[in-house]
Amino acid sequence: MIRSDTTRPQDAKIITAEHQLATPSTPADDMVDRLMTYLKDKDNEIGRLNKEIGRLEARVEELERNARVHVSPQYAHTSETVPT
Questions:
Q1: What is the pLDDT of residues 32-71, one digit of tens each?
Q2: Is residue 54 domain-resident?
Q3: More confident residue, 38 or 24
Q4: Torsion of CA 76, 78, 81, 84, to 10 degrees
Q5: Host domain of residue 50
Q6: Most-buried pick from 3, 58, 68, 71 (CB within 10 A)?
Q7: How many structural domains does the chain have?
């Protein structure tokens, strides 16, 4: 339901789909449409980035788990001395 520029709710007009299609769009309507499209695009981008962040966090956790396996280097011990 879209209200007209009246101040009282009981005076609000309901614009039907047929009336809305027959009415030429105003610059304000065009601006609202562009803003709504922009917001939808940003919402989709945020959703995509959230999924990517989730994948990256899982990858970091996997790399950290694998890094724990190789905690310190192992050295070979021998009784031989190195000449200096």
A1: 999 999 999 999 999 999 999 999 999 999 999 887 765 5
A2: yes
A3: 38
A4: -10
A5: 25-67
A6: 3
A7: 1
Question: Is the overall model pTM greater than 0.85, yes or no?
Answer: no
DSSP 17-82: HHHHHHSPPPHHHHHHHHHHHHHHHHHHHHHHHHHHHHHHHHHHHHHHHHHHHS-S------S---
Confidence at residue 44, expressed as pLDDT on a 0 to 100 scale: 97
- Report which DSSP code applies to 8: S
Q: How far apart are CA 29 and CA 42, in angstroms?
A: 20
Structure tokens at 45: 């981008």
4 with 11: CB under 8 angstroms?
Answer: yes
